[in-house]
Design goal:
Membrane topology: Single-pass membrane protein; Single-pass type II membrane protein
Largest sheet: 7 strands, mixed
CATH architecture of one domain: 3-Layer(aba) Sandwich
CATH class of one domain: Alpha Beta
Shape: globular
Structural class: alpha/beta
Main location: membrane
Strand content: 5-15%
CATH topology of one domain: Rossmann fold
Subcellular location: Endomembrane system; Membrane
Oligomer: single chain
Keywords: Glycoprotein, Methyltransferase, Signal, Signal-anchor, Transferase, Transmembrane
Number of strands: 7
Strand order of the largest sheet: 3-2-1-4-5-7-6
Pfam families: Methyltransf_29
Length: 373
């Protein structure tokens, strides 16, 4: 690299010297003529412009610090299938902002089994690289096919039906033994969204009563950050189709949703909802939507919810938590920008250690989109 750069600079110096001599010779031949300067020949202007452009290009290639071998290799050697894919389909700009991860993801053997790199895909998606580029390899599946899959969405999740090698827990029963809020214990999940324990709860039966009294219907719904899909499972028993967006953050949430006979969407919160405008009757936001999301991002999310909701549809913020002062000064005005009708608005203290320490509260709000604005 150093020898090549030195040779390029030597050639440039020779070109510069040659052209300076030519200019000197030209000026010496016209000194006896009137003061009006003769125009510089076009070929000299072209050569000088070429020299300037070449120097600028070489300067831009000169690194400020010696790159590591790994970085240099990733930046200069793109996987062949990545190069092919860029010619047939656009790639999200954030993918290009993470070239090393993108190259690792696309560095595979075409027409063979895909590498076992689910965490890498998750990492790229969370960095905004979504949708991921398509790949020409065969997805990995469990070695043994399941003899049967449950039709009851609250049956225990069948073992050996998902690849769990990259998790600490290697079985669904292990995940079910973790904290109840993870959503893998079907005995716990079976009673969720059905009972009224505090003003923060909105049982599904009450939700349908509200819709019926408003002469509205709930047939299609979207559950944002729906975990293992329990809300969708309960609504399925009421003949309502619910699509659940979820990420595999530390647990196989997408696999759990699918094994329950439901539809998971592997989509991050910052991604535009992959649903057409004005076609959904209900959008629910669960625990994944909370005060940790930047306010501007949340504002875009809420207005994307408005985009997919039909007129008269419902927006359910279920146990949204934030600091009490932020709810009053930030989030309530933000929600108010939608100009939805408040059907339910319940606030209560968050009583766990984090809630007490940070002065946090829960909000459950059911809002109805107006028919016209």
């Amino acid at each position: 690299m150093g020898f090549t750069m030195g040779l390029n600079l030597l050639l440039l110096l020779a070109m510069v010297a040659t052209n300076i001599f030519s200019l000197y010779h030209l000026s010496s031949t016209i000194q006896s003529k009137p003061p009006a300067a003769a125009p510089v020949p076009d070929h000299l202007i072209h050569q000088l412009s070429t020299i300037r452009a070449t120097i600028n290009h070489l300067t831009s290639l000169q690194p400020s610090a010696p790159p590591s071998k790994k970085t240099l290799s990733a930046a200069t050697t793109a996987p062949s299938d990545l190069l092919i894919y860029t010619h047939i389909s656009p790639i999200a700009s954030s993918c290009k902002d993470n070239p090393i991860l993108l190259h690792q993801y696309m560095n595979y053997t075409p027409f063979a089994v895909c590498p076992n790199e689910a965490p890498l895909a998750e990492d790229l998606i969370l960095r905004g690289c979504h949708p991921l580029p398509r790949r020409r390899c065969f997805s990995r599946t469990p070695s043994a096919a399941a003899s049967s899959l449950p039709t009851d969405p609250f049956s225990p999740l069948p073992e050996k039906t998902a690849l769990l090698n990259h998790y600490n827990c290697k079985t669904f029963s292990c995940f079910a033994g973790l904290k109840p809020e993870t959503g893998f214990d079907m005995k716990v999940e079976k009673s969720r969204f059905l009972t009224y324990r505090s003003d923060l709860d909105l049982p599904i039966s009450q939700l349908f009563q509200i819709a019926k009294s408003a002469k509205s219907v709930i047939r299609l719904a979207l559950d944002i950050g729906g975990g293992t899909g329990t809300f969708a499972a309960q609504m399925k028993l009421q003949n309502v189709t619910v699509v659940t967006t979820t990420m595999n953050l530390g647990a196989p949430y997408n696999e759990a949703v699918a094994l329950r006979g439901l539809v998971p969407l592997h989509a991050p919160l910052q991604q535009r909802l992959p649903v057409f405008d004005g076609v959904v009757d209900l959008v629910r936001c669960g625990h994944a939507v909370n005060r940790w999301i930047p306010v501007t991002s949340m504002e875009f999310l809420f207005f994307d919810v408005d985009r997919v909701l039909r007129g008269g549809g419902y927006f359910l913020l279920d146990h949204f938590f934030s600091k009490k002062v932020d709810l009053e000064k930030v989030f309530t005005p933000l929600i108010g920008k939608l100009a939805y009708r408040k059907v339910k608005w319940a606030v209560a203290n968050k009583t766990d250690s984090s809630g007490v320490k940070n002065g946090e509260v829960f909000l459950t709000a059911l809002l109805q989109k107006p028919l016209t604005k």
